[in-house]
């Protein structure tokens, strides 16, 4: 059996902690977390890989010989290490995931990661070493003698004591059976009590936990979230015998992976373990090779490594997942399997090799908070008439309809997921119950991107909000809605420290959230004032309350007076704001036989309505006009406009004293459900990309148009590039409103 590079490198690191040795591990143990989704999607076929294909990648990456550790599940270790003897002819060390704590139980529809982690072990050390539970001492070298053990501290005595007790028992068994381990320390996945500085909290827990462990029971090295230079140096300088390693975390850009390794090594890390970043790359051996270049100092610049990686992909005839300029950007990622916490690091990341103006912010660009629900959308037959819709509910009658789809609804899902599709770093904040509807919502978010589910609050014993969306052919939508957990969501559920690097905070549907309307706007105004104090631009979307329910009876004029001074961009639909202001309609009467579309609108009445809202203190008003597009009017006070934008926004003067209308693009309507939310997403995404008012409106109605062309749960793949291509190809617009020139 060949000598293992891991053992040689650890010996040199302990002899000289300042040496340049660096240990790389490939994590192929995701079947103990994600289940069927673990092998990922093949870049060549676009289909999910099978377990056999996943194991073939393990063989290839091991035989390449550039990694030092291959981490696997016990079952894969049995096939490759014990049965095939793959590692006998390799300098790579096989390792097993020795425990599967509950925050990595990421089954579709599961809610475990939203609850404080609990220790658990599926794996038996004997199975990892020999494949049998009745192992003899002489047989223990047949399999893996190294494992990963995970702990998560959540700032609660009961939870954290249980975690340490389980780790103590593991260490005792491992020492008795000659089994080595490295210790993975996740960030708190669901802290029971607040934690101001997660990096310091984790560092202190590591030091105090290992202080009670003798050398024979200690981990070979640590694997933890990289919390930035200061936290890394603090831990490394405290005890040079502790070998500190980082976990790669979720998939981001290639620059994310390369820069993280380069910077962590610079400040003292000596190990990096990458799982999803390797598994989701275009070509795993080439990706690993460039990680090794950076680890060994053959490349000393992350941006240079990205360019080299793209050059090699081109030589292999492999199309990259992203354009080079996009792959050179730093993005927001959570760094472990399930943590929804952001950690206290520097506010911005310096992107080496790029002009400082192109350096991307760390953290989400836009935070979307507020209402979320599950939309249940029955399908109506084409022959279902308007007359039938008017008598849809008749006592004692049965009306036959078609199948129903279940899709995400509400501002948080519709606006947030569309922003994500558009490539905007987005964080979602909402509240659901621990019921079947809640599990369905989490499953949909996980299917889109597992990180998007991490900001959701799962409330034990509460119901998840749902809407029955009634959309017969030729009839405007109507809704049967249950607010549920949205009614208990309140300002304290929004952790302001997670907004640190965001540009825009968007809140949606307060009329459907009791805590935000029952006090006449005090809670809503206070939240937005606190958000603005952190330098963010605030945006607010409304919803039509039930006129016969309590929310429909409050004085919405008073509510608006309290809230709008703290709203930079107010984005209601026209009918919502007319109801709240108690205004006369600005439209002519709806003609007989209408299909629910808006008739011709009057510019003067629109302008007067917008002026009332601007006078209450908001910086700009955007009216959603259904099939007639968007109307924008902004304050003529340059100081109010300037104060309303996020830091570093250029071209602010373009927004002063503007009044514009953007007509819709010509589309074949498939479904209008959620179209307004998605239109808002287009507007906000353009704002985050520093667009001017004309461009922001154009992007908004384009995104809205592409969304209504979709039907059911299907949606177009959105990007500003695809939108621009379609517009330049001659995408036709509808006629503008009378009184507006051009757009």
UniProtKB/TrEMBL annotation:
GO terms for molecular function: kinase activity. The keyword Kinase applies. It comes from the Bacteria. Pfam families: PfkB. Residues 395-714 form the Carbohydrate kinase PfkB domain. The keyword Kinase applies. It is an enzyme of class 2 (transferase). Its EC number is 2.7.1.-. Keywords: Kinase, Transferase. PANTHER family: CARBOHYDRATE KINASE PFKB DOMAIN-CONTAINING PROTEIN, HEXOKINASE FAMILY MEMBER. Belongs to the carbohydrate kinase PfkB family. This is Putative sugar kinase YdjH. It comes from Allorhodopirellula solitaria.
């Amino acid at each position: 059996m060949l000598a293992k590079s891991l053992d040689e490198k650890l010996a040199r690191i302990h002899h000289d902690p300042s040496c340049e040795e660096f240990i790389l591990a490939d994590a192929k143990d995701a079947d103990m977390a994600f289940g069927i989704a673990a092998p990922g999607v093949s870049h060549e076929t676009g289909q999910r890989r099978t377990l056999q294909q996943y194991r073939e990648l393990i063989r290839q990456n091991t035989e390449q010989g550039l990694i030092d550790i291959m981490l696997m599940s016990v079952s894969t270790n049995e096939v490759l290490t014990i049965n095939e003897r793959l590692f006998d002819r390799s300098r790579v060390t096989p390792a097993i995931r020795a425990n599967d704590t509950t925050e990595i139980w990421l089954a579709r529809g599961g809610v475990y990661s939203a609850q404080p982690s609990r220790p658990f072990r599926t794996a038996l050390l004997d199975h990892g070493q020999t494949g049998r539970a009745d192992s003899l001492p002489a047989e223990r070298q047949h399999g893996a003698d190294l494992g990963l053990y995970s702990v998560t501290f959540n700032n609660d005595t009961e939870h954290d004591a249980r975690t340490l007790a389980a780790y103590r028992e593991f260490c005792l068994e491992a020492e008795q059976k000659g089994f080595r381990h490295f210790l993975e320390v996740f960030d708190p996945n669901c802290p029971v009590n607040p934690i101001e500085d997660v990096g310091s909290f984790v560092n202190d827990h590591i030091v105090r936990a290992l202080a009670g462990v003798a050398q024979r029971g200690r981990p070979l090295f640590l694997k933890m979230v990289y919390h930035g230079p200061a936290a890394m140096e603090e831990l490394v300088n405290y005890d040079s015998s502790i070998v500190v390693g980082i976990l790669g975390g979720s998939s981001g850009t290639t620059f994310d992976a390369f820069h993280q390794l380069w910077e962590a090594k610079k400040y003292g890390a000596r190990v990096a373990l990458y799982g999803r970043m390797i598994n989701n790359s275009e070509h795993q051996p080439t990706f690993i090779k460039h990680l090794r270049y950076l680890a060994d100092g053959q490349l000393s610049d992350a941006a240079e490594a990205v360019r080299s990686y793209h050059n090699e992909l081109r030589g292999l005839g492999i199309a990259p997942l992203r354009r080079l300029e996009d792959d050179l950007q730093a993005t927001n990622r959570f760094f472990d399997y399930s943590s929804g916490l952001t950690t206290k690091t520097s506010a911005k990341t310096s992107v080496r090799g790029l002009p400082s103006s192109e350096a991307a912010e760390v953290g989400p660009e836009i935070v979307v908070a507020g209402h979320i629900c599950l939309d249940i959308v029955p399908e109506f037959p084409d022959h279902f008439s308007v007359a039938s819709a008017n008598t849809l509910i008749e006592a004692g009658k049965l009306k036959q309809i078609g199948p129903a789809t279940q899709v995400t609804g509400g501002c948080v899902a519709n606006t947030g997921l569309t922003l994500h599709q558009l490539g905007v770093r987005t964080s979602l904040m909402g509240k659901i119950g621990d019921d079947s509807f809640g599990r369905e919502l989490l499953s949909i978010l996980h299917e889109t991107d597992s990180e998007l589910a991490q900001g959701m609050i799962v409330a034990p014993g509460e119901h998840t909000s749902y809407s029955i969306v009634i959309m017969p052919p030729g009839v405007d939508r109507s809704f049967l809605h249950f607010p549920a957990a949205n009614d208990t969501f309140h300002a304290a559920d929004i952790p302001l420290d997670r907004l640190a690097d965001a540009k825009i905070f968007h809140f949606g549907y307060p009329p459907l959230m009791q805590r935000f309307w029952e006090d006449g706007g005090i809670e809503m105004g206070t939240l937005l004032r606190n958000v603005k104090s952190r330098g963010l631009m605030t945006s607010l979307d409304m919803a039509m309350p039930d006129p016969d329910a309590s929310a429909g009876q409050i004085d919405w004029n008073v509510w608006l007076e309290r809230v709008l001074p703290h709203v930079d961009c107010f984005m209601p639909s026209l009918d919502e704001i007319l109801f709240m202001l108690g205004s006369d309609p600005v439209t002519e009467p709806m003609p007989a036989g209408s299909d629910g579309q808006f008739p011709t609108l009057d510019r003067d009445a629109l302008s007067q309505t917008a002026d009332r809202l601007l006078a209450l203190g908001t910086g700009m008003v955007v009216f959603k006009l259904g099939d007639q597009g968007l109307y924008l009017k902004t304050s003529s006070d340059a100081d109010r406009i300037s104060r309303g934008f996020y830091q570093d926004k250029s071209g602010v003067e373009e927004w002063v004293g503007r009044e514009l209308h953007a007509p819709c693009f010509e589309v074949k309507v498939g479904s209008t459900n959620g179209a307004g939310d998605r239109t808002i997403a287009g507007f906000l995404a353009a704002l985050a990309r520093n667009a001017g008012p004309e461009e922001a409106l154009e992007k908004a109605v384009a995104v809205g148009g592409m969304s209504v062309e979709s039907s059911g749960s299907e949606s177009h793949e959105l990007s500003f590039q695809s939108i621009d291509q379609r517009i330049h190809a001659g995408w036709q617009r509808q006629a503008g409103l009378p009184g507006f020139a051009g757009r």
